[in-house]
Amino acid sequence: MSTHNQSDLAVVRWQRGVPVFGVPILTRNFIFLAVLSIIGFSLVLYRQIFGLGAATGLSDGYPWGIWKTFNVMTLTALGSGSFPIGIAAWIFHKRRLHAVMRTTLLISFLIYLMGLIALGADVARPWNVWNLFSPWRWNPMSPMWEVLWCMPVYCLIPLFLENTPPILEQLYYFFPPIRGMVVWTIPIIRVTYPYVVALAYTLPMMHQSALGGLMLLVGNQVFPLWQTPLLPLLYLWAAAFIGVATTVGAMMLCCLAWKRPLDQSILDELVQLIVYLVLPWVAVRLLDILLRGKFLLMFNSGFRSFLFWDEVQLVLIPTLFLMKKKYRESQYHLFICCVLIVLGGMAYRFDPTTFAYRPWSLTYYTPSVIEILISLGFISTCIVLFLLAVKRLPILPAPVQQWYDLEEYYKRIYPYVQMSGYDNKDQHRPSYAD
Amino acid sequence: MSLTRRQLLQIGVVGGASAALGCTASAEERPSAPHDAVGMLYDATKCIGCKSCVVACASANGLSPDTRVDPLHQSPNDLNSFTKNIIKLYTPPDGEGPYSFVKRQCMHCLDPFCVAACPFHALAKNPVNGVVGWEAEKCIGCRYCQVACPYEIPKFEWESLNAKIVKCEFCRDRLAKDQEPACTFVCPTKAVIFGRRDVLLRDAKKRISDHPGKYYDGRVYGEKEAGGTQVLYLSAVGFDKLGLPSLPADEHPSQFLKWSERMQKYFLLPIGIYGVIVGFLKQNFRDHESEMDEEQKKTGLIPQL
Amino acid sequence: MAKYAGKYILVCEGSIPTKEAGIYFKLAGKPGTQLLEEAAAKAGAIVAIGSCASWGGVPSSGDNPTGASGVSDLIKGAPIVNLPGCPPNPYNLMGTVLEFVRTGSLPELDNNLRPKFAYDRLIHEQCPRRAHFDNGRFAQVFGDDGHRHGWCLYKLGCKGPDTHAACSTRHFNEMPDVWPIGIGAPCVGCTEKEIAFKVPMFQQASVHNFTPPATYPPIATGAGQPAHIATGLAGLIVGSAIGAAWTAAQRFQSSQEGATANPPEPPKTMPPMSSAEKPAKKTPPTQGGR
Question: Which residues of A290-300 are buried (b: 16+ CB within 10 A; e: fewer)?
Fold first, then answer.
């Protein structure tokens, strides 16, 4: 589409997380989403009081509903961006990717938190969850055990700790009385950081593969195009590229909404990551089906063939497009491709537990309205908390220039709020484009 | 991408260790029956559909009758939270050919799917007699057992706030008192009988050899299905027509989870991966730190992690 | 009475009016209550025969204007046997009396003082029409085809499932089928204090002991139906999400084309102050602490 020569555009570099400033928090969309999340959580209360049977469309023939299959098994893949991006940044020395780490970590934390709450709402005897702390009752070979352990630990320890620096930073700048305490924590963070971050990469490998492993036990009830011994690997892999694509899409949306410049070089690196992840994934998936001798099922199983190709093509075709510089640098194409990859990946994560799952009793399941509203409430809560966080914490990356703009903005609008922590800033103010 | 020699060495060590783990894991094996495995043999050709087993099961297990379909009768349409045992009727679709009753209850697999699925051993197989039972204080209600069971046996009390998993537990209270299960005890035609699994299997095979051509496929359902079950079936019509799925002998949980089991033996692989990542990170974090400090000098802003 | 004190059996028939000092029933100038007390005082056993003598029966129904009561309501501490029924089966009286004569004690009684040998089972459990009940063959209205074929009378208000009596097994006067259900009339529950003359005749009874029917469930019982509202809601949500994404993509295109046409100056000043901007929380001026 865009055939203009783009070299005349100023090259933008994302250098620093800066809060979104100059926009109100209580926008119309924000209130709408907040109402949705309040409705969702009130309905969670309803489910706790009246039981699963009253609140959901579940039955003995179809015991897992959208809270597990969508909110936990599908959406946590969107929140897995911090894991591949972090590995690329820390282990494969893609230093530039550190600029988006805060955003992707925040997305991860919120989505996992909501996934945990969804799991809590779905579990019918939550008072027995304390068995997690009774090792003599563990069955570590159950994929469910792995999910139940790794997900909360991942969300509440590494992800939470990785999300504390923006909060500490904000305290440092805006609450001078405790500035000394914040400074005191910095060496602690620096010493422990590698250990925490390494945990943040080990745990997703375990539980994202365990989510795929859940369906292994179901055997033939999952359609053979999806059921494979490689399911854990493919699930983990899919989570990786979905997470990266989600991060790209979310960054672009944020920059569009708050008129921030996009750093094409970082987006390029992320897209490269997506390409490296998607192509082998598709290849492994097709090869696996070929080697298991289920080749014909790809074409002659009606709706399920359609689903299969739908997943593969939604992921593959946008990736092929993104391999071309022309499409990668067109924001329009980049965004659409990322959305399609996310959709395709989500379909892959969703189908083995729903459309490709055929219980012997041939039971149908449609989620009840309450179920859908609760699920929607969890998603809205995610977005609401994300909006709050990026408007108050230095999360979204921007050129360093914006940090100084922020400071001047605060001095003018809230003169009574004392911002501190700038040393020698006048000598070192870099140019906008660097 | 620049990996140092030390990092490559680390990868090699972990890779080798995990490969070794995979190889040392035990070779393919059939699940074996517990030493005193009890069993049930149901011969569909002897069943007259009197449902005395259904009534006896409900009263022995203190289940209230399921009157949701028909308010005047105890008439469950399938196994459910009120019903641990049921008699169903197979009617040939065109009206021709043999009819057959079938009694459905937990199969008490030798390698149970529900037990492999349960995260906290709420469903566990008794090591002595092989009965698969459920314990309330361990169950968190994740319902993975329901998803995993190929026979769709565990049922859930959807309407209850203290929801329980309901399934046949071989009348384990009666077994403890040296009584046989209620259903085999009351069966008037001895269509379902109780005994040791090995004895029943011999009995079933003898019936097949005594009456060649009478039984479907000349085999006992449950001898090998999904690694074998402790409830055995004989029938004149196809087992799949009676709702008993055809499960290959080698498709049982320890087979399905073979690889994840090897990967996770004593958590060595995750711990190894963790170690490698820590190794990488510690070095790269030092580089990152010095970069950040430089940046701080340049801009005067505290570095962002 | 004086001669056989403690040895005779008092057989009492009919209810005893208690209101207005028992003036509604007088014999030889004495009210019924007094007569009963005198006769019961020296009786070896008391048999209340019929529903009226057992708890008041027909006269006690509704507002009970005369205060009609049964024997066991008035006499306490004496061995009483109730033989309710309207009419009661004579064999029950004979059996009770013979047992008293032979063994000197009364037969085993239930909570309502009825002898268990005759009243321990429900009509429903021994009903000759039970097979029709289990097969779901019910007479729907009096005189319909099912009624003529002798189908189950449950839907016509038969109280068999609620009524403890031996009518279905011990025929009246040894004549088969001489009892309500036998002649196609629903049981009214005449032996049950809580039912007879209280529950409307044609009101359906409640079943207490559920047993399996004569029908069988099929092998596959796949259940569940698509919920239309929920499906619509899910479609709406997915549709609006995709729509939002599409709109965003369009805006990317337009913003980028605009940007390419006139590359923006790097902002030199801060963004304009938005009038809508309000601090989320009025932060008090931070004191000192530099």
Answer: eeeebeebbee
The pLDDT tens digits of the residues spanning B118-160 come to 999 999 999 999 999 999 999 999 999 999 999 999 999 998 8
With contact defined as beta carbons under 8 Å apart, do A99 and A255 qualify?
Answer: no
Q: Which residues of B, range 70-89, sit inside 8 Å of C by Cβ?
A: 70-78, 86-89
The nearest CA of chain A is from the CA of B7 a distance in Å of 10
Closest partner residue to C270 (CB to CB) among A361, A367, A409 is A409
Provide, as residue numbers in chain A, all residues whose Cβ is less than 8 Å from the Cβ of B121.
137-139
pLDDT, one tens digit per residue, over C118-169 is: 999 899 988 999 999 998 899 999 999 999 999 999 999 999 999 999 888 8
- CB proximity C283 to A under 8 Å: yes
Owner of token pair 């029709």: C132
| DSSP codes, C239-279 | HHHHHHHHHHHHHHHHHHHHHHHSPPPPP-SPPPPPTT---
- pTM listed for this prediction: 0.85
CB contact under 8 A, C134 and B55: no
Using a CB-CB cut-off of 8 Å, the residues of chain C touching A8 are 263
Average pLDDT of the residues of chain A:
88
B58: three-class secondary structure by DSSP: helix
Interface A-B, measured as beta-carbon pairs within 8 A, has a size of 206
- Which residues are bridge partners to B101 per DSSP? B89
Helices (runs of H) and strands (runs of E) counted in chain A: 19, 2
Answer for the pair B38, B195: CB distance below 8 angstroms, yes or no.
Answer: yes
Chain B residues close to A216, C-beta within 8 Å: 256-257, 260
Separation between Cα atoms, residue A19 and residue A8, nearest integer Å: 28
Alpha helices (H) in chain B, listed in sequence order: 5-24, 52-60, 113-117, 144-148, 172-176, 182-186, 197-210, 253-256, 258-263, 268-299
Side chain identity, residue C135? N
Task: Report the alpha-carbon angle A344-A350-A351, nearest 5.
Answer: 90
pLDDT digits over A387-402, tens only? 999 998 999 999 888 8
The pLDDT of residue B20 is 53
Confidence (pLDDT) at B205? 95
Report how far apart, in Å, the C-alpha atoms of B255 and of each of A295, B215, B225, B260 are: 23, 30, 13, 10
Per-residue confidence (pLDDT) for residue A341, from 0 to 100: 96
How confident is the model over A129-181, as pLDDT tens digits? Answer: 999 999 999 998 899 999 999 999 999 999 999 999 999 888 888 777 787 88
pLDDT for res B262: 78
Which stretches in chain B have pLDDT values below 70? Answer: 1-29
* Interchain CB distance below 8 Å, C261 and A372: no
Contact A387, A23 (CB under 8 A): no
Written as six digits, the tokens of C61 are 């129904």
Q: What angle do CA C199, C203, C205 make, to 5 degrees?
A: 85
For chain B, the maximum distance between any two Cα atoms, rounded to a whole number of angstroms, is: 94
- φ, ψ of residue C115 in degrees (nearest 5): -65, 135
Q: How far from each other are the two terminal CA atoms of chain A, in whole angstroms?
A: 29
Per-residue pLDDT averaged across C5-21, rounded? 88
CA of A177 vs chain C CAs: smallest distance (Å): 5
Residue ranges with strand state E in chain C: 9-13, 16-17, 26-27, 30-31, 45-49, 68-69, 80-83
pLDDT for B255 equals 87
Using a CB-CB cut-off of 8 Å, the residues of chain B touching C133 are: 72
Q: pLDDT > 70: what percent of chain A?
A: 94
Task: Write the residue in A336, A363, A412 that is nearest to C223 by C-beta.
Answer: A363
Strand B155-156, strand B132-134: pairing:
unpaired
Residues A31 and C185: their CA atoms lie apart, in Å, by 68
The predicted structure's pLDDT at residue A151: 93
